[in-house]
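Let us practice reading a record.
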Amino acid sequence: MSPERPPVTDAQSLAAALPVDEEAAARVARRYPLRIPAHFLSLIRKPQDPLWRQAVPSLEELSAWDAPDPLGEEAQSPTPGLVHRYPDRALFLVESRCALYCRHCMRKRRTGEARAVSPGALAAGLDYIRRTPALREVVLSGGDPLMMNEEALVSLLARLKAIRHVEVLRIHTRVPGADPDRVTERLASELARFAPLFVNIQFNHPAELTEKARLACRRLLSAGIPLGSQSVLLSGVNDDAQILARLFLGLLSMGVRPYALHHPDPVAGTRHFSVPLERGLALVSSLRGRISGMAVPHYLLDLPGGGGKTALLPGVAEKIGEGIYRIKSFRGEWHTYSDRRMPA
């Protein structure tokens, strides 16, 4: 068995593997870190293909657009790294590293080796969860929780499971598609101890549904862990009805329930991935009736300013002007949302 190839983590290594401008890639990586696992790198076929756009740094990331945290996570963090936005659940950002640093990442502001999550932050988050009986569900994210040392992840899950009012645990990850060899039978067996534990995986294009990804998902499913997908609608990646249909049907064939299609967030450094809301609504509408209802995910918009995720359904989104909408939040409050972008 050949040794595992290391991930690409610097512009020089990237230029040796792909036809990129090394100087430009280095400039971007100084602000937003670079990491592409060997598996994901092997799937890139040509410049600007859907996987290239997700993984390879682009000077477009340095354009000025919106804020690093437009969704207001920091303002809704009672302790560093824990976001309490919804009444009964909390988002626990337990790891700063990812297998793949997605160029469209909503948390570009906080991912990377240099932003490691401290033991003190984890302890403070656990303490807040213990002191907040309204929390019945905890979502582990980051970064990517499956990048944690296995022993540390299991220990954290055990401490969460010991909190009486925490009934459900969830992990958000991209590892099964981006670096599937990390999902071993041992890891799946360890995670199975913490049922009910749900794993939601980010898959954005049918090319990511490889045999290795299927095996990783099969290992988790065989351990009794339900799987869902959280895709992101991205310009130049999957903003096409046929691509979305292939992606969602492919996921369903792998035992992964297409759970959410997220409208791209207006995060600094991601302007080139934006899709008009009207187009997203039309794409999802075109899928209904054409493919199994089980393969059609919720189309979700995370309202800027901390309004929370809202499923875009009839009566929820109303167009009131060119590129301007009224969106009803989960609290029943109306928010104004605009597709108009600040100039680059």
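A brief commentary: The longest strand covers residues 89-95.
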